[in-house]
Specification:
With 105 residues, this protein is mainly alpha-helical. It is built from 4 helices and 2 strands, in the order αβααβα. The chain folds into 2 domains: 1-27 and 63-99, no CATH class; 28-61, no CATH class. The longest helix has 17 residues, at 74-90. This is Aminotransferase class V domain-containing protein.
């Protein structure tokens, strides 16, 4: 919301729970890209890595990916886009109804 971020697993849960949209949350095997995208310094990356290695997987930054295949209908594409826009605008309001497990993310 605004310049605040919500956890990528939370976004994936909302897309699934509210719209039946399955996505993939995590770093998508693109750790260096994510580090650059989120402006994470090498020192901060090391701290995040050490925290995750201690069992707190929920600290790991990431993003969510949904795919549009080549035969998707315009109607379904619009549905997916609207679902993402809804979660981006209103998802934070549903935070009180979810709990982050810091060990699993």
């Amino acid at each position: 919301h605004g310049n605040k971020l919500v956890h990528h697993n939370f976004v994936a849960s909302l897309l699934n729970d509210l719209f039946g949209v399955q996505g993939r949350a995590g770093c998508s095997c693109a750790g260096p890209y994510g580090q650059k995208l989120f402006n994470i310094s090498p020192a901060s990356a090391l701290c995040l890595e050490q925290t995750a290695l201690q069992g707190e997987e929920g600290i790991k930054p990431g993003f969510i990916r949904i795919n549009f295949n080549f035969f998707i209908s315009p109607h379904m594409a619009r549905f997916l886009i609207d679902a993402v826009l809804f979660v981006a605008e209103h998802g934070w309001k549903l935070l009180p109804f979810y709990r982050l497990d810091v060990n699993t993310g």
